[in-house]
Design brief:
Number of helices: 11
Structural class: alpha+beta
Helix content: 25-40%
Oligomer: single chain
Radius of gyration: 20 Å
Strand content: 15-25%
Length: 367
């Protein structure tokens, strides 16, 4: 196990913010970063991921387990409790989760658990203005080589060194009415995410010298949040089904056997997400594809969709919808979150030997 000091840096008034940094402690070399703008649905996304961990643990008969530190458990539990009581969480959880961690355990054929530990750091976006400082020399006429990556703070270097990158695409911002404030916010978000992808790609390209192809390999994935907030006319205009293609489970129903980038359903989902991105996040998709020209491959990206169903309360305000039987549960895309959880085992299983030697799973005895 390596040390876990990797402070997360968020970006200032450019609206680029890196909300969470997940460090996978299967060695000291495989951090996972979640990258997205403010207000992109991070609190709901993280709380639903926590709820999915709870559900998945209870239904897999010991094939999957997780453990979280007290701060994470308490805070996420309170957020979920609030939504089950049909109240939305606060817009930010600043100060509540400055540092926390959790562990995933995947049962192997020997009856032991291969574990992945995530350490998370959260710093508010207004605390730093790193991207502004980086881009300022270029805007003032410094030219294409004016961004100095050698002098980056250690925290930001750690972020850019991540090989597993989660890009948040906020679907609540898509809009087709020019000159409206919503339309302006969508365009700004598109520029934000495109700039961030460009920044990551340029840094990766400069760092590639001396690294093998396998060491340079990236594992990018895109999470489309707030799918439930897309207007019906958007689907009709794009000739899309109002529901994204569901993931197919593999024939052998085992933990870690859920997600396959080459499956028919995965390919259909990528096509579905690409239609949305081409229409509303054109720069983001173009820069994602353009990374290959500097030997940074974002092309083979997993796509996940996050949505939570809503209903109107007595005041006509949309609130989380519930499954009401003997058990009361939130209605959300739980299969997407289960697949998201298993995707990390897929990554670890597919890692080449030269990388696995430094990132071998720690072994947790069966209890």
């Amino acid at each position: 196990m390596g040390h876990f000091f990797n402070p997360l840096l968020a970006f200032g008034h450019t609206e680029i913010s890196v909300n969470y940094l997940w460090k996978v402690a299967i060695g000291d070399c495989m951090p996972v970063a979640i990258l997205g703008d403010r207000g992109c649905g991070k609190t709901v996304f993280l709380s639903l991921l926590y709820d999915a961990q709870v559900e998945y643990t209870n239904e897999t008969e010991g094939k999957f387990r997780f453990y979280a530190n007290p701060g994470f458990t308490n805070t996420m539990g309170e957020v979920i409790n609030s939504m089950v009581n049909q109240n939305w969480p606060e817009a930010t959880i600043k100060g509540l989760l400055a540092k926390y961690w959790f562990i995933y355990g995947y049962k192997n054929r020997f009856g032991k658990y291969n574990s992945v530990k995530f350490t998370v750091y959260d710093i508010a976006g207004e605390d730093v203005n790193i991207v502004n400082d980086l881009i300022a020399p270029y805007k003032s006429g410094g030219g294409i080589d004016s961004i100095n990556y050698e002098d980056l703070p250690d925290g930001l270097k750690t972020l850019l060194d991540c090989n597993v990158l989660v890009f948040i695409i906020d679907l609540s911002r898509i809009n087709s009415e020019p000159k409206t404030e919503e339309f302006k916010r969508m365009l700004s978000y598109d520029t934000t995410m495109a700039t961030l992808i460009s920044l990551v790609a340029e840094y990766k390209a400069k760092k590639a010298c001396g690294l093998s192809e396998e060491q340079r390999k990236l594992y990018p994935l895109f999470v489309f949040t707030k799918f439930d907030m897309v207007e019906k006319n958007i689907f009709e205009g794009l000739k899309l089904a109002p529901k994204y293609p569901r993931l197919e489970k593999k024939p052998i129903d085992i933990v870690g056997g859920w997600f396959d980038l080459q499956s028919k359903s995965s390919i259909e989902r990528i096509k579905y997400g690409d239609v949305l991105m081409k229409a509303f996040y054109r720069q983001t998709r173009a820069l994602k594809l353009g990374g290959t020209l500097v030997n940074v491959d974002f092309d083979k990206s997993a796509y996940f969709f996050s949505e939570i169903q809503t209903e109107k309360d007595e005041d006509g305000i949309p609130v989380p919808s519930l499954k009401k039987d003997i058990e009361v549960r939130l209605k959300y895309s739980i299969d997407e979150y289960k697949a998201f959880i298993n995707y990390f085992k897929e990554i670890a299983d597919k890692m080449p030997d030269e990388v696995r030697e430094e990132q071998e799973f720690s072994k947790v005895p069966q209890r």
